[in-house]
Amino acid sequence: MAVFAAIPPIYFVARAPSEYWLWWVMTAGLAGFYILFIKTNLIIKIIAIGGFINCFYSAAPYISFSAYIPLIACCYFYILCSRIKDYDIVFKFLQALLLFVGFMFIMQYIGHDRLTNFGRAFSLNGNYCFGIIGHRMQSASFSVILASALIISRPRYLAFPFITSIFCNSVIAFLCASVGAAICLFRFLNKKRFIILSGLLLTIFLIWANMSGKLAENTNITAGRLAVWISSIKLLNQRPVWGWGLAEYKFIFPALGGMNSIPWKTAHNCWIQLTFELGYPLFSAIVFYVIYLYIKLIRLTKRVGFRNNSIQCLAGLSMITANMTFHFPTRMIQCTLIIIFFLAYCQKVIDQGGIENGSR
Question: What is the pTM of this model?
Fold first, then answer.
């Protein structure tokens, strides 16, 4: 998994010969229906079948089905992750990945990255490679997702997205890290100190967002992210049941969104983009699953044997949730695999808590 998480953003087009098209449709569709008979989480079954049906109602069925193939692969990846017996080796891979990314950041900051930036002096502007992803915002998002999984084993890894947010000038990465830090520290602070800490982190975020101009830029109702979200919802309401289809946002919105600024190929909000592509019913199932995870993990915090682990899972889940609200980690293969592993681990913790409770 760590190897795939280090894949750089390479643009490619896979063209399947037409004589193999029916073979792909039948194989992937059957793989989706077979998940119904595998012992796994209900949401995986819903996604596997719902995603396949979505292709038939998509605005561009062929594009949506091309996206369904990696989707069904992700479903099986979740199943494999949920069957891991020893998670220690996975966390070691993720730790190695964090060290690798950190090393790249250091080399880039001191101007000695002669492999990706060719020794150029560090700059927040221009065509400059950040970390292993390349883009400044995406690198910051990746650091949040990576830390979300790693704090399960060591909460100290929360420092990574805080540092990365400064290096990449990302207020959103700082906000996500702040959410995780507040939840992790909640058990050690009384109510008054917790409120002070949360208020301090929120104040720093607002000052930073305002001074950098990002607050005004993204709340602009004619060109910022807020405008994109509003326009996306308006288009979604034209096809509320099945949405526009898997992977259709980057094709539909630039053409029909009516934005006069740069073409928006992502909504910079995974929740809105997922709804746009899947429709309200299927998206609701995903939301219910996230709520289910929160409820179960919160309940486990009241049990001594699961308290620390469940709090760390809650912190990671909240960081991912916040990041998905402003960035697009589910559209980055480097982040998607880590998120899937994280969700499988959370489910494992919940299941173990249920088994222990039942044995009593």
Answer: 0.91
